[in-house]
Amino acid sequence: MSKIRVVHYINQFYAQIGGEEKADIKPELREGVVGPGTAFQAAFGDEAEIVATVICGDSYFSENTKVAQPEIIEMVKSCKPDLFIAGPAFNAGRYGLACATISNAVKEELGIPVLTGMYEENPGADMFKDKIYIVATKNSAAGMRDAVKKMAPLALKLAKGEAIGASAEEGYIPNGVRKNFFEKKRGSERAVEMLLAKLAGKPFVTEYPMPAFDRVAPNPAVKDLAHATVALVTSGGIVPKGNPDHIESSSASKYGEYSIEGVQELTSEGWETAHGGYDPVYANENPNRVLPVDVMRDLEKEGKIGKLYPYFYTTVGNGTAVKNAVGFASEFAQKLKKDQVDAVVLTST
Amino acid sequence: MKLTVGYIDIHDIQFSNESKVENGVLYVNPEDIKALASEDENFASVSVDIARPGESVRITPVKDVIEPRVKVEGPGGVFPGVISKVDTVGSGKTHVLRGSAVVTAGPIVGFQEGIIDMSGEGAKYTPFSKTNNLVIVCETKDGLEKHVREESIRMLGLKAAAFLGELGRNVTPDEEKVYETLTTKEGMEKYPNLPRVGYVQMLQSQGLMHDTYVYGVDAKKTLSTIINPTEVMDGAIVSGNCVSACDKNTTYHHQNNPVIHDLFEQHGKTLNFCAMLITNENVYLADKQRSSDWTAKMCKFLSLDGIVLTQEGFGNPDTDLIMNCKKIEEQGVKTVIVTDEYAGRDGTSQSLADADVRADAVVTGGNANEVITLPKLDKVIGTLAYVDQIAGGFENNTQEDGSIVVELQAITGATNEMGFNCLSAR
Q1: What domains appear along chain A, each with residue ranges and CATH number?
Q2: pTM (2 decimals)?
Q3: Which of A315, B12, B24, B189 sits between 20 and 30 A of A299, alpha carbons compared?
């Protein structure tokens, strides 16, 4: 059997081009291994060969995803690989997101197996763990050896089309697909051990996390509201009249971003709700009832808040999958963060 | 309460003119078993067969599995209130024919019995591929109600196990173990610094042949109560179940409850195993509330720090499981629950029918919907007539080469919720 052809994706840092100051470099294709590729190549032995490495700056990828992604896909395609690996990204947020995004795109567009690795709390993991295999790594590059040790065999298995075992066996982040496997200890013994850990206040890992309990602890109060930028976000469906982006009245698949720059209050002529789950009469009569632009402008004038963020984000909460809602928020939260918004007022219906 | 259990290792079962235990071999005269069956006029025919580990044998439809035991010292006899008189058991000395089991087979409901494969892929999932099994295939007379048939087969299995256990009365055990439960006061004085741990066992009691018996009492007519773990070793709890085979507790599971054994293993070292509680899984909401309230109340009353909670069955009992867990946690008693999953054949669905944030420590016996292929085996004890209707089977699941495709559900004991197996899922 001929060697499995592998393309490896890494960022500017692991290519030793530079740190944050070089994060804007455009995608580049290099023959053979670069950086952490050496460790992977050693682990693959004679079974696989890293034929090329794609290097891309993290900022460039995150800010120009629409341009960078097809460009990288073309680079990968030109190498005719059997397998694509990315990272590992550890706890680097933009790098993790890039690794996961590009891996998913390669999988979808080129139809080859892909694998990446990162720390479980990396935002890329949360967004893509259900779509691609992501190996759980430590939270810093000190975990490289360990990461390669887990990623290389799983990558080979994927490339060979072998059956993939449960997350606990293979080391990938649980992807919502329950899979059976044999533990070393019987269930009762594991239960007694878990109870002893729980009683002692020591960490333990449940074998089945209860579904749908995404409880987010509130952030501490804003200290200086008078100088804070405050944004409005709603699941109450307030949109410009005519619902230009066609946000669904139920089970929304998208959210809208609209400017309220210079808008003193929402009028019934210019705004309405797209929400199909409550009586829209009062919201349409006075859209500020759901998205309180008028009150926020008053607070701005009174100097109680610094300023109202010039855009608001809106969707319809009616029958919308939690998974979708989480996806919307993770996207626009990045924009809010980037624009240094200090606080968000979330309104429902 | 202190019980010494003497384990007599059984390496083989053979037919013989004389029923006896000799040099680790259980010799059985099938006529002795048939004589037990003849005491019950409901049987049309009863045949006896042997299935050994590794043999190319499939047993189906399986009703119950029972371990032969005998009380050699102390009050009472095995299966109190059912086979023996109702005296309190759990003390003195009991002999066990370890490595052997009685398996009752024969159609009752048809779709609610299980499969035991002695070799091949299926053998990995059932603990009874590792025991030497005396299989009693029962055909009851036509026209009998299902619950009447269930009772006849249940009783015959228990009688046979008691009969075989008796053969070990005067045999010297290969190993002896002592299990002792202290009174509340004694335990507190002896282990003042160890966490007080209990075991709460949920018993299947949905009715319509989803039943369990405690000292002969139908568990659905009981209130949550306290039982000594050693009483259970003497057969105080027996299965009357015809439910999905993978996660029903056979009588063998009760006799060898792994939670009891693993808690005894740690008793006096890392924890103080104080008490075992049993509670039921009835279908009515009022019953669920009453039973779970009662369980939580007793956990508090016994000043327990933590408990292991085990389920039996799935779906409706998931609500009992979560109610118990939630209410016991609310009493300040920490819980670990043992369950199994119905996450769909592709494993993507929510695994339980109920959930609560307090159930943060879960041990799983695996996804019962996962599909496996059972190879064609040389011999079938019982009949393959039900493998497409059995819970876990489906239409046309027998393939051209004779192999059978089933969900794990169909395999006796595959996803046991006492934590009997190593199978798990993530």
Answers
A1: 4-170 (3.40.50.2300), 225-347 (no CATH)
A2: 0.78
A3: A315
Q: Which of B138, B242, B299, B325 is catalytic?
A: B242
What is the structure's pLDDT at A138? Answer: 94
| B172 inside domain | yes
CB contact under 8 A, A178 and B343: yes
Q: pLDDT tens for residues B42-56? A: 999 999 999 999 999
| Mean pLDDT along residues B89-116 | 90
Decide if pLDDT at A214 tops 70: no
pLDDT at position A213: 52
B110 has pLDDT over 70:
no
**B242 in active site:** yes
Q: Which residues of B touch A194 (CB under 8 A)?
A: 336, 361, 363
Residue A183 is nearest to which of B360, B362, B422, comparing CB atoms? B422
CA dihedral A197, B356, B324, B336 (to 10 degrees): -20
User: Which tokens go with A262?
Assistant: 């210079």
Tell me which residue range forms the domain holding B124. 2-410
Task: Name the pLDDT band for A319 (thresholds 50, 70, 90).
Answer: very low
- Asked if the structure places residue B424 within a domain, the reply is no
Strand segments, DSSP code E, in chain A are: 4-11, 28-31, 48-56, 83-86, 114-119, 134-137, 180-182, 229-234, 238-240, 256-259, 271-273, 307-314, 343-347
First to last CA, chain B: 39
ipTM: 0.96
Number of structural domains in chain B: 1
Closest by CA to A347, choosing from A235, A231, A251, is A235
